[in-house]
Amino acid sequence: MPQLPPAGGDDLGAPDELIPFQDEGDEQDKGAGRGSAHGDLDELKSSLVHESENRRASASGSDSEAERPPPPQPRESFQKPRDYLAEVVRRQQDGGFFKGPPYPGYPFLMIPELGSTYLPNGALSPGGARTYLQMKWPLLDVPAGATLKDSRSPSPAHLSNKVPVVQHAHHMHPLTPLITYSSDHFSPGSPPSHLSPEIDPKTGIPRPPHPSELSPYYPLSPGAVGQIPHALGWLVPQQGQPVYSIPPGGFRHPYPALAMNASMSSLMSSRFSPHMVSPAAHGLHPSGIPHPTIVSPIVKQEPTQASMSPGGNSKSPGSVKKEEEKKPHIKKPLNAFMLYMKEMRAKVVAECTLKESAAINQILGRRWHSLSREEQAKYYELARKERQLHSQLYPTWSARDNYGKKKKRKREKQPQQQIQDTESSLASKSKKPYVQYLPIEKPCDSPASSHGSMLDSPATPSTALASPAAPAATHSEQAQPLSLTTKPEARAQLSLHSAAFLSSKAASSSSSLSSPSPLLSRPIPFATMTHTALLTSPPSFPAAIPSPQAALAVLQAQPLSLVTKPAD
DNA sequence: GTCCCTTTGAAGTCT
DNA sequence: AGACTTCAAAGGGAC
């Protein structure tokens, strides 16, 4: 078991104690003695890899090894991202919906290999980007060149099914923001040697010279930015020189660092779409730096919300309203799952014929649960950094600011009443008949089994407390099966259930099981069954409904919930 | 044109 | 403190 950094009580809410990789930015933020986590990152990473492999090895000793698909290629198998890509191509040509290597869909994994594509200034050349495009990696549709000069080069994004990146105002990978400070954490490959002055003796992975990865990266303030070494200083030949050319007054060019390296794309993401960003100063951080989370106030807002400004000032309603209109809509930072979804959506869309997001999300949700802890931890870490970036960009922003700015969903009844009513009206109350988007035996739906990571996360109370993915794994076991087969009302209950379950930290979950609704108590036996059934289930939908008995249980509980969607 | 659906997680509000 | 709600992305579908 790796020695994870002591739980520092992340004020950002991330399950830090479960996240193997910490950055010094946290320590700076919290000022808490969290230990020099970063110094041991490589060791931690290595430990985690070994742990994961050990877990897989031990899991493979279970009764289902023969029926489980072969374990994914360890990342070490791909000495170079190119090899990995070749494998990707091969498997895609095979038509299989493979559970990729430890970091599937991580476009920035390519970056290290693109050493030759780096321009002298550390930027990526378009040539490397084309590699992405040919790979049809959803989020790699972004021509790296566009990130450099915002050249709007003909992006093949439009060639690929409305991939998130298509919407990037500047063709930025939505995760590239996080790539910068995460690349050494998660990259299975190696950054360009000429750009990486340090090489980790253990992993052989070149490491940035500056351990600090986050705080240097974020523009805390216009005046301070220039003093901060860039997180990707290792990408820049000259050390000690600020990566960003910060004008005395701070950033004025929206993307001052884009010409320096693609990593600066951290300031954009798909959320930073053209139509969302007003041409004026809206969307700009006080420092002048736009952030993906900033969108134009054009974003629908309920007028009545204007006077409910979180600030609670005492201005007249009119002025408040105007102020509110001027106020850019700063979106919430994406959580781990959202980041994962964003990254994997296009891939799923490409591999499946499904296009409905609801269906894709179901798949992604299951895939998410199928991820190993380390894989999930990666996204938790990304999300945490995203939040950190967000909080640094907008110190005064609160999620409350966006409350009510989106059309509220119907809340016809109090949850408790819903629970009581759900059973009787489950089939008829729903506006839209529940659609089971995941057809049984759908080839593109092989989340849990393809990787066997359900087995990787044995969701014991100890593990549930030990890793970021563990709660998810626990959640998965408890709620995932039903979450795929319930109507919205039931889902709400399940959320309730799972929330209670999670909040109880698995130890006291029994309390949450004593729900007044049979639906709420159902997950337990079902999950128990699933837990074992998964060991022998084929790599498709049966991961959720592992056996005829399980399917029957679901059907009995929700007779009309298994409405399969007509085939395309 | 707007909202729903669907997913998980974070963070808010409410009790 | 715990329960509950809202929002974040996405895009087809329903209205």
UniProtKB/TrEMBL annotation:
Gene3D superfamilies according to UniProt: High mobility group box domain, TCF3-CBD (Catenin binding domain)
Keyword hit for Nucleus: yes
One Gene Ontology MF term: RNA polymerase II cis-regulatory region sequence-specific DNA binding
Residue numbers spanned by region Disordered: 1-81, 180-218, 302-328, 393-428, 440-486
Residue intervals passing through the bilayer: none
Pfam families named in the record: CTNNB1_binding, HMG_box
Database matches in InterPro entries: Catenin-bd_sf, CTNNB1-bd_N, HMG_box_dom, HMG_box_dom_sf, TCF/LEF
Biased composition (Polar residues): 302-317, 475-486
Listed GO CC annotations: beta-catenin-TCF complex; chromatin
Low complexity: bias regions: 457-474
Family affiliation: Belongs to the TCF/LEF family.
Protein name: HMG box domain-containing protein
